[in-house]
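Q: Here's a chain of 191 amino acids. Please give me its 3D structure as tokens.
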Amino acid sequence: NGSEKDAGRRLSQPKLIGPDSQLSSTFDMLRDTKLMALVQGNQHFSCDLYRQLASQQEGNLAFSPHSISTALMMTLAGAGPESKTKEQMRQVLRQTLFGEQLHESAGKLRVRLQRSQNSNHTQLLSANRLWCQQGTSFKASFLENMQRNYGAEPAQLDFVRQPQQARQIINAWVAWKTGDAVRQLLGPEAI
């Protein structure tokens, strides 16, 4: 019948893949071995974290492994060079990349997720920031790494003398960055 002929014609026409298409982007990502190593480590970390969290509670479980791994990678960047802590964190995160390779790959993943969101009409809201005690200073190279690869700016609050105000500021910022999807990241006793 006519509909079978039309269906055959539609299937036989090749679909062109342009440089901005999702499939083309996926192939590019597969060729980037460092980015793939990061993604694979994130997948293993996500499964490890799920098993750990699920073993501690019953019922439904909602968490963001991407947000958690990103926060830990940002923390990892601040650990002392060649420290035992740095190596332990890298192992927990299940990452095979070291140093700048890890952080550059995290930056590439962040950009890809943002581009994917724009082209697929999906919404992924991510909020990264360095919340620190007033008067804390950081090395310029660390701050540059945080901005370039994680989109994270520093913000100083007085956690010691005004912990509730600091908590409210952080919660308000997170609510704003997530379109009110996360309204109370930190509970009353968190700080």
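Q: Can you summarize the key feature?
A: The longest strand covers residues 129-133.
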